[in-house]
Amino acid sequence: MLGLELLRRMLAEIRRDVAAARSRDPAASGVRALEILGTWPGVQALLSHRLAHGLHKAGVPLVPRGMAAIARSLTGIEIHPAAEIGTGFFIDHGMGVVIGETAQIGDDVTLYQGVTLGGTGFATGKRHPTVQDNVTIGSGAKLLGPITVGHGSKIGANSVVIHDVPPNCTVVGNPGHPVRVEGRRPEGPDADWIHLPDPIADAIKGLANRISAVENAVAEPASGPSAEVRELRPMPEPGERDDGTTSVAHGPGRAVGPNPAGG
Asked: Which residue has the higher pLDDT, 187 or 24?
């Protein structure tokens, strides 16, 4: 009975994983379940992890890590056997995805290629992120440390997140900054990464506008009466008049004028 119950649970998880691939990957639309199981690396890595995780919890040595290593070689996705992953999890493309040992992932979470749920330093215990339900994480994003990403949040592509993320918000940048998308609460696996707000770009744009305004103000002529402009002349040398002629100095008691002797 226990074996039948386990089999039923595994089949239900497989069906939900295939349904998640169909609903979130346009390329899977109309594709049969067997083809998705055989050719979608994200689904294959997840199926391998579910089996390896069950063996790990049962205390089976070596085999779970061996399965994880084989899955990494075949799919390019590395998931530690001890990581806890909920239902409806989907990894799109998946190459370069790394999920650490103490990571915890809720239901209906979507990851794109190059995502890392990693740790920091050499601390023991809980050292990897906790991702709650309905979270979408964009390509190349890095979530580091024992942080929590709240329900319904979105992590922009190439963001680096090292602090907790509140529910229903969007994070962009390095380090990640929580922002809103047009005042809406971002729900579901919306992957419109092109129109995410960028607070750093907005700040730079504001500074550029202020500099332009200052330059325009400086270029405008000053208001009020104009000042008189005079020509600059060099200062005269000693003994020289302002008109450039030389004055003659006479001794005391000496007459100035025609020579009285008629000479």
From this structure: 24
Phi, psi of 116 (to 5 degrees): -120, 125
- Distance between CA 92 and CA 139 in Å, rounded? 9
Q: How far apart are CA 196 and CA 205, in angstroms?
A: 16
Q: How far apart are CA 162 and CA 119, in angstroms?
A: 10
Handedness of CA 19, 23, 27, 31 (dihedral sign): positive
The domain ranges of the chain are 2-190
Taking domain 2-190, whether its CATH number is 2.160.10.10 is answered by yes
Residue 155: beta bridge partners?
A: 137, 171
Cα separation, 171 vs 19, whole angstroms:
27
pTM: 0.70
- Residue pLDDT, tens place only, 179-204: 765 556 555 555 565 566 666 777 78
Reply yes or no on whether the pLDDT at 131 is more than 80: yes
50: helix, coil or strand? helix
